[in-house]
Amino acid sequence: MTRQQPNAAQISMEEGNIDALYLRISQDDEKEGESNSIANQRALLMGYAKKNHLKNIRVFVDDGISGATLKRGGIEELIALVEADKVRTVIVKDLSRLGRNYIEMGQLTEIVFPQHNVRLIAVNDGVDSALGDDDFTPFRNIMNEWYLKDLSRKLRSAQRAKSAQGYAIGQPPLGYMRDPENPKRWVIDEEGAVVVRMIYAMRLQGTSVTDIAAKLKHRRVLTPSAYAAHKGYNKRKISVNGAYFWDHPIVRSILSNRAYLGDVVNFRTYSRSYKLKQRLENPEENWDVHRGVHDPIISRPSWEAVQRTFGDTKYRKPKYVEKNMLSGYLFCADCGARLNYKYTHDNPENEYFSCRNKRARNGLCATTHHIRVDTVTELVTNHLRRTLHFADVFEDEFVKIVVDEHYKKILLTQRKNQHDLAEAKARDKEIDRLYEKIYEDQALGRLPEERFMKLAARYDEEQGLLRQRIRHLKKVVQEEKEHEMNTDGFLALARHYSADFAELTPEMLREFIDKIVVHHRQKEQGVMQQRVEIYYKLIGHFKVPPFDKKQTERLQVSFGRIRDVVAIAA
Of 64, 26, 42, nearest to 453 (Cα)? Predict the structure, then answer.
């Protein structure tokens, strides 16, 4: 196929549009060596951009993520900017960096990019959409997906062969490491094994799983993922809550892991397709079990004794528990976590909500924010009745109050979040400039290769964390915009309901309530009080002012009753 050189009209774009460099590496790519590393891709694309005088550079990175799907943070951010017509050029090392899903890649390269006048350049593939259509591009996409499918098939076959020989598939759990002389086998890592033995000993002494997690956190013991990263065993991600964030599932998985008996148990989970990352539970008859393959950390009698402690649990979780209609609406005023719906097993009518972080004893919240279901239901019911009544009788005053409260909220929250977002974006651009400078210094011989790689890795790590923060702040700012007040919409909705409705229903919650923020109970002037803030859809937090004299007297009865109910709740 004959291709012509592009003219200025073909590749000229609006001034200030982004020239995007997209970098991606998966765990499989890492096995192929340094050529596909993020640092190598960045250096290659920075060099290309500099050589072709591209100025408005912005880098998008997905580190350690498969190309089987476009559900990746970096590519999603890039596509969002493309669809907003803010991107002029997308440059990748090769098309497989964008992705290996033939259908998604075809949609992206043949529809999305052309619709938004985006020039696509794949440096090593010799692809440049400004030179005209490349008929071989679809075949490259097919080959890239075939590579992924073939790799998956070979991996499954290798895993089956490895398992048949009694080798463990996957990463060693806490307490084990790969044998330096034979990486297919596991040997005991004594430093990690100390923690495992301690967990089993505490359980055999009668300590609950939740208390074990709390003690490990208090002693600042590294979690399994943090420990593996610390020792350099693998690149498992550390919880966003920190390196000491022990919780019930982590401890429970250690206490039930047969690997500590020296056994190998393979294929406990499976996926339906190489394109689907969701792992499904495999029936036990499909497991591949080999006993006594490596040295045990826990004796079989001790392990079986621990399993019996779970079997002897007095109350088992029902297969299905009908949740209260308020579930999902209540949030902790201190840590922001949802309040979990609970009930007392020996008295199911004793229903309540409490902070999930406090119950997990993970150190993220100091108090329970406990509130009874009947209490919060009555609070919401009465507040909604008063709000609907006030909006109906004093419509103009209602609109004025809502508007004033709304702009106070903007001043306190939106301005700060937008400031933080601007600072994060500025630092992101600064890192791009710093990277370009060290690349230039390295190319001119002013910076040794080893020093360049260390600096590049440090900048990559900082920018990765920074991009996560930017995505979070963008989401927060967008949510604030989506929740902008709409008094007309609220009033229109309110007209469909009577202020004297009989009882609160799930439909009314969905229509009116955005969230309910619950504070911890505390004494005020010798009386236990608990503050509950109700946020409505379309108007946000609304405090009902006193009505006229007769109405005020009538409301005072309701106010007093509610205070009594809250004070009694315990």
Answer: 42
Q: Is 176 helix (H, G, I), strand (E, B) or coil?
A: strand
pLDDT at position 317 over 50: no
Say whether pLDDT at 474 is over 60: yes
257: closest CA among 306, 209, 205? 306
Residue 457 lies in a domain: no
Question: Please, what is the average pLDDT of the chain?
Answer: 76
**Which two three-digit tokens encode residue 564?**
């009594």
> Average of pLDDT values for 215-230?
87
Q: Last residue of a domain, which of 283, 311, 339? A: 311
299 and 372 in a single domain? The answer is no
Tokens of residue 339, six digits? 């309040």
Q: What average pLDDT does range 134-145 have in this prediction?
A: 63
Same-domain status, 321 and 305: no
Reported confidence tier of residue 139, pLDDT bands at 50, 70, 90: low
- Nearest-angstrom CA–CA distance, 376 and 562: 10
pLDDT given at position 486: 66
Q: Which residue has the higher pLDDT, 283 or 338?
A: 338
Q: How far apart are the first and last CA of the chain?
A: 79
Mean pLDDT of 451-474: 77
Residue ranges making up the domain that contains 352: 315-418+484-570
Asked whether residue 403 falls in the same domain as residue 552, the answer is yes
Considering only residues 567 and 349, tell me which one the structure prediction assigns the higher pLDDT.
Answer: 349
Mean pLDDT, rounded, for 333-339? 82
Higher pLDDT, 212 or 335: 212
- pLDDT at position 4, please? 46
Are 142 and 189 within one domain?
no
Q: What is the dihedral of CA 190, 192, 194, 196, to 10 degrees?
A: -130
pTM: 0.42
Residue 469 covered by a domain: no
Query: Is 306 in the same domain as 253?
Result: yes
Same domain? For 354 and 277 the reply is: no
Q: How far is CA 11 from the centre of its chain?
A: 38
Residues paired with residue 62 on neighbouring β-strands, in sequence order: 24
Burial of 26 (0-12, 13-18, 19+ CB in 10 A): buried
Distances, alpha carbon 16 to alpha carbons 19, 57, 122, in Å: 9, 10, 22
Q: How far apart are CA 18 and CA 36, in angstroms?
A: 24
Query: Do residues 357 and 221 share a domain?
Result: no
Contact 346, 530 (CB under 8 A): no
Q: Are 18 and 49 in contact (CB under 8 A)?
A: no
Judged against a pLDDT cut of 50, whether residue 381 lies above it is answered with: yes
pLDDT digits (tens, 9 = 90+) for 392-418: 888 877 777 776 655 555 556 667 777
Q: Tell me, yes or no, whether 438 lies in a domain.
A: no
Residue 430 lies in a domain: no
Q: What does R_g of the chain's alpha carbons equal in angstroms? A: 30
Q: Which residues, including other chains, have CB under 8 Å from residue 128's CB and lie 6 or more apart?
A: 6, 119, 120, 121, 122
Residue 25 shares a structural domain with residue 103: yes
CA distance 252 to 264: 18
What domain count does the chain have? 3
Which contacts qualify for 218-226: CB closer than 8 Å, 24 or more apart? 220/244, 221/195, 221/246, 223/250, 224/173, 224/174, 224/250, 224/254
